[in-house]
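Quarterly update from the structural biology core.
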Amino acid sequence: SDRDGSLLPPTTLERTMALAAAVAVAAFVLAALPFIHAFAPYQNPRWSPTWDIQRSTLTMACNSSGFYDATFAGQFGIVSFDWSNAKAMWANARPMNDEELMAEQAAKTRAADPDARVFVYRNLVKALPWLTSVREKLEDPAYAGFFLRFKPGGAFPNGTYHVPACTDGKCSPFYHDQEQTPEHPTPADPHPDGACTAQCDCGHVPCGEYLFDHRNGTQLADWLVEEYVFGPLGLGHPDIDGLFIDDFWCSRLINGTCTDPVQGPSEVNAHSQADMGLSDEDVRDITEGWLRNTARVQQAIVDRHKYTWSLIPGQANANASPVRISRSTCSSILTAQCAGGGGGGGGGQDAMSYDKAPLLFGLTMGNSTHPLPDVREEVAAFQLMRGPYAWIGAGVWGMTWPAGVGFDAHHKRYAVPLPPQMKGVDYGEPLEACRQTAPGLFERHFSKAHISLDCTSYAGKLTLL
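Predicted structure, tokenized:
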């Protein structure tokens, strides 16, 4: 999905966040839970932990008009660059070179701050030809088995499909749609998802979203791990530390209900199953193959001391939705986490214990006058809950920090600096787990600070010692 860092008016923002949260939860519940066991288990990265709160910040970064400001990006502990970053540049390259520009953006960011950890984008569902490593395989007949095909003879009696098999004089037998595809603007579609000033160039194949056939077996799985993920423009690059892995397969025979948009690959034309001539059993088999390959990729990533969002609880199936806290949920969430409250902080209860598991935590995003209205309380909650592997950022789906590359409701560029509670401040290391010391009052001592949050009055304290 595209992410441009825009900030909407508060009422629209809240509605958007609520909708995004509902969509994310629905996707996770309906698509992930029936087969979550097939993914690699949730686990921390194998790099050294940090309690430095600025090094514990995270953002999904995207500037579609060009490179993202590397200095701004480098101040985050993890900055994860979306596929749409620098789209105006790579969509007009001949041929498109998104993969190269993500690696170049990573190098720029690492040069600006050698301590920043940089992630880039990969997709194990869609085979995107604007990534050079994928395009080369689409063009090579030796790898035809890697990709799903259009149904021979068409989906309609006249031999056509719901999506075009040919574009700009180029045709492909491999299924592809144009749902999120750069195109040359036309009167019918003046604002495509990436504008090519001339004819779009994806090499010898039409531009579009192709699909990996995960029934292929070990040849596809080996290539995904060794070349696509760990190649020189991926995790084999010295300036790239991790990945955001996008999209998922959903099968009615496995999941029961599929809603993104229907059974099959997520965020792909709703008629893709008919256009490929796939039976429900085919979709099931591809879904199971995708699960196996995803688990193999995830485990290879962590075994080789890299990381991916999907190894964090709640982030399976291309999710990017942080844990959030509010006045109404403060007590219940912290009770589940803190010693003395029957929670995971010391009681070993069923609740996810974030003092051990990796945590993504989101701040409430406000408006241009009050961009972070509850930052003190939310930083306090984060410090109370967190373990050695935890990240805090914007409390919206995608966790894109407003960085001045998008626009607010008045079409003005808008940027929010990291607040003083998260930048250049040293709380030290925890001396204890979070404790509930009175009804609704949660505390935790650090070596350089005392952190507390009173959920009754919703008042946080970050007292430096």
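Confidence is low (pLDDT under 50) at residues 1-37, 341-350.
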